[in-house]
Amino acid sequence: MSGRPLLNRRLDGLGTTIFAEMSALALATGAINLGQGFPDTDGPEAIREAAVRALRDGRGNQYPPGMGVPELRTAIVDHQRRFYGLTFDPDTEVLVTAGATEAIAAAMLALLEPGDEVIAFEPFYDSYAASIAMAGGVRVPLTLRAPDFRPDLDALRAAVTPRTRLLLLNSPHNPTGMVLTSDELTAIAELAVERDLLVVTDEVYEHLVFDGEHTPLISLPGMRDRTVSISSAGKTFSFTGWKVGWVTASAPLVAAVRTSKQFLTYVASGPFQYAIAEALRLPDDYYTAFRDDLQTKRDLLADGLTAAGFEVYRPQGTYFITTDIAALGEKDALAFCRALPARCGVVAVPNSVFYDDPDAGRTQVRFAFCKKDDVLQEASGRLQQLAS
Ligand SMILES: Cc1ncc(COP(=O)(O)O)c(C=O)c1O
């Protein structure tokens, strides 16, 4: 074999995701895993039953339609109307994907030419860097800074160049919990229109906003035809393993994203698509109770982390809390997280790996609170050892 590296240059440095490393550590040590963002309780029983029924009735066991089953596309359209007053055509403006992850990758592969610049908030959700890289794009970070992680809109404006093709936005934002305000959304929309940019919005935490509210950028003036709006069932219904996600956008944008998506998975999650169609039609009570429950968990863990000596940035949304460990006399989040399971039996993830600028997040650590109350209490108790 030649001395040429096996992994191509585009993916060089992306390595194993931090979630895999930390979840393996949790398994190996028996520590409580507050690293990876998956709930430890499955979603509604009725929705699980709907999946079983679909399987038994032979719905979705063979390749579903490339755009997604009509029941789900219609349910997505109705969801967008119910919560945001938005109208989409289920036949041309909705695309079902293998989670939001595939939708993001397909959007980058469809919309970018090699060398195109993509502006994204850092810390980034880790698939963004990979998706942009696989498409040959160049990521341009816009750093969100503690304590409130608001985007610097002047810096955003200054980051746009003639090579900028799109903005890849995430609100509610993982890992910081920042939720864009209506003034920020307006400024971003005006910039996108002025500079003729596309915008891809990752809205997977749309139903987990505790302070403020979620407004899809696509609802703002001038954005309907330049926004690819992405969401997923994993977080909202606590079925992250089902990998049912979707795109809502204008017909030409959906057609573009579908072109790359069809050669990634073609389709996925057949029977689960029918179940998620039912989930999306759950009454408002479900959504309210889900959010209230997570808000209680946020407060429980935030108080525990504060008592343990962390500086806590209470999130406006998502199910993550970003903390700073400098207050504990620590200097390096990655080293801290690697040692934490042995020190006190808890796993967290270092935010530093989500930044291009390693100094910006050097002492930030993220904890997930989508866990049972007694698990959060136990983890908080264990973390108190750090304070002593
Ligand atoms: C911001 C963000 N986007 C996308 C995803 C992935 O969504 P899915 O599981 O639907 O692919 C996650 C999961 O953690 C996330 O936090």
Tell me about this structure.
One of its GO terms (biological process) is amino acid biosynthetic process. It holds the Pfam family Aminotran_1_2. It catalyses: N-succinyl-(2S,6S)-2,6-diaminopimelate + 2-oxoglutarate = (S)-2-succinylamino-6-oxoheptanedioate + L-glutamate. Belongs to the class-III pyridoxal-phosphate-dependent aminotransferase family. The chain is of the alpha/beta class and 388 residues long. The chain folds into 2 domains: 9-43 and 285-387, Aspartate Aminotransferase, domain 1 (Alpha-Beta Complex), CATH 3.90.1150.10; 45-279, Type I PLP-dependent aspartate aminotransferase-like (Major domain) (Aspartate Aminotransferase, domain 2, 3-Layer(aba) Sandwich), CATH 3.40.640. A hairpin with a 6-residue loop joins strand 9 (311-313) and strand 10 (320-324). The termini are far apart. The protein is globular, with a radius of gyration of 21 Å. The protein has helices at 18-29, 45-56, 70-84, 99-111, 126-134, 153-159, 182-194, 233-236, 251-261, 270-280, 284-307, 333-344, 373-387, and strands at residues 32-33, 94-98, 117-122, 138-143, 164-170, 198-202, 227-232, 244-248, 311-313, 320-324, 346-347, 349-350, 364-368. The strands form 3 sheets. A 7-stranded mixed sheet has the order 2-8-7-6-5-3-4, sandwiched between helices. Strands 9-10-13-12 form a 4-stranded antiparallel sheet. The structure holds pyridoxal-5'-phosphate.
